[in-house]
Structure formats: C-alpha cells, structure tokens
Amino acid sequence: MTTAIVAERGFSLATIDRLAAALREALARGDSIQLDLTHVAAPDLALLQLVEAARRQASRDGVDVALAAPAGAGLARALERAGFIKGFDATDHDFWFHGDPPR
Fold first, then answer.
1. Residues in domain STAS (predicted)?
2. In what order do the strands lie in the sheet with 2-6?
3. d(C-alpha 96, C-alpha 92), whole Å
4. CA distance 6 to 37
5. Count of CB atoms situated within 10 Å of the CB of 98
6. Which CATH number does 2-96 carry?
7. Is the pLDDT confidence value at 63 over 70?
8. Residue 12 region, left (φ>0) first, then alpha (ψ -120 to 50), else beta?
9. What does the domain layout of the chain look like in residue ranges?
C-alpha cells in the first residue's frame, strides 16, 4: 500500500509535528510513502532533517519513500544552503530531483 503525505503550505517548525507523525505512522505500517512537498513555501533545515531521517528509517525497514515531484527552486536552495547537495550520491540526487539537475 502507498500512503500519500502532503506537507501543508504553512509548514513551519511549529507544525512539523503533524508531518512527523504522518511519516511515523506510515513507516510503522510498512507503507510505501509518496511525500508531496510542493506546497511548502519556506522549506527549512528541520524539514530537510525530517525527510532525511524518514528516508533512512524507510531504508532500514525496506520501505520505499519518494517525492511526488522533484524539488523545486525553494527546496533546492534550502538543500544547497544546508550543505546537503555537496554530499549527495546518485540515490540522493534521484530522490530529491528525480534525476533532473537542481532548479
């Protein structure tokens, strides 16, 4: 089963708990996850860390996690500012950008 999780437009540190809970629940069920971050207006380090933690847990559990759409410009800038892109391997690049160059 695949669970679609949509991050809310007003995502912030104050609302991260809802996204974290949805990810935890889907992982606990062993569901594949399709994560939609397209509506997040101001992605921050907390969001990036949450997604990366979920990816690592999913990998350990044998669960697939995918973004519904490649990272847009705002998300790509956040990844660059936080230093994530420098350490990306091919799997990370495919996850965040679906094989396309960062926008």
1. 11-103
2. 2-6, 32-36, 65-67
3. 6
4. 6
5. 12
6. 3.30.750.24
7. yes
8. beta
9. 2-96
